[in-house]
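Milestone 3.1: sequence recovery, worked example.
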């Protein structure tokens, strides 16, 4: 998997045209995962699109990243958005179709860092007053207010039964999520202190109102197992 060094640290990414050489340029789709996910959440969509589009998926520092960010890196919601904008700049991606599910970070580029965005697609993500959404969001919000609560909540993902409950990940997808994906997504938070220490720290509330994403732009996903964006860290 290729990687690129950005201001906050090194991030991994996948690019279906990484080995395309000097072939004809194709329209680019950038898929953005949400909190405590990685590029694998989009794999079925990448497989469907790769024949007709260049598909790029960055692994953002949202909890399931495998490379710790630099000490002191600001990983608030707006700084994650700025990191995404820097990623588009460094790869010189132009007029991209930017697709976001779960945490809705891509909304924050509109009006500030949108010069490389041709289209913005928001699917099954947080927007406006839908924050934090659902029982999962309320549970996480409550856990953040109790000392050690977030640690105990994360331990539940060690159990396939607990992770699959409707009040947990099982209630966030139309189809059962394979437990090997749960282990992949939450492994860094459970076993890698470096990744856990450089997960988002300022996502309990938006820094300011999103500049787009009306309710009609947040319909149900028909792609891979996705979350409505419940997992936020204080």
């Amino acid at each position: 998997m290729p990687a690129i060094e950005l201001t906050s640290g090194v991030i991994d990414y996948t690019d279906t045209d990484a080995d395309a050489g000097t072939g004809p340029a194709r329209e680019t789709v950038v898929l953005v995962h949400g909190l405590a996910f990685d590029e694998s959440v989009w794999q079925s969509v990448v497989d469907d699109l790769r024949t007709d589009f260049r598909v790029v998926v960055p692994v953002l520092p949202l909890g399931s990243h495998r490379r710790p960010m630099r000490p002191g890196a600001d990983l608030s919601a707006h700084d994650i958005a700025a990191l995404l904008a820097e990623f588009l700049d460094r790869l010189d991606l132009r007029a991209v179709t930017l697709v976001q599910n779960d945490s809705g970070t891509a909304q924050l580029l509109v009006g500030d860092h949108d010069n490389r965005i041709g289209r913005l697609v928001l699917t099954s993500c947080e927007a406006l007053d839908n924050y934090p959404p659902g029982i999962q969001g309320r549970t996480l919000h409550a856990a953040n207010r109790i000392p050690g609560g977030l640690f105990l909540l994360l331990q539940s993902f060690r159990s396939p039964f607990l992770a699959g409950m409707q009040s947990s990940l099982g209630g966030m997808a139309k189809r059962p999520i394979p437990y090997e994906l749960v282990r992949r997504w939450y492994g860094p938070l459970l076993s890698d202190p470096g990744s856990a220490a450089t997960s988002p720290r300022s996502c309990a509330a938006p820094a300011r109102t999103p500049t787009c994403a009306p309710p009609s732009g947040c319909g149900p996903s028909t792609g891979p197992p996705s979350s409505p964006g419940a997992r936020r860290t204080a």
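Confidence is low (pLDDT under 50) at residues 201-234. The two ends are 30 Å apart (CA to CA).
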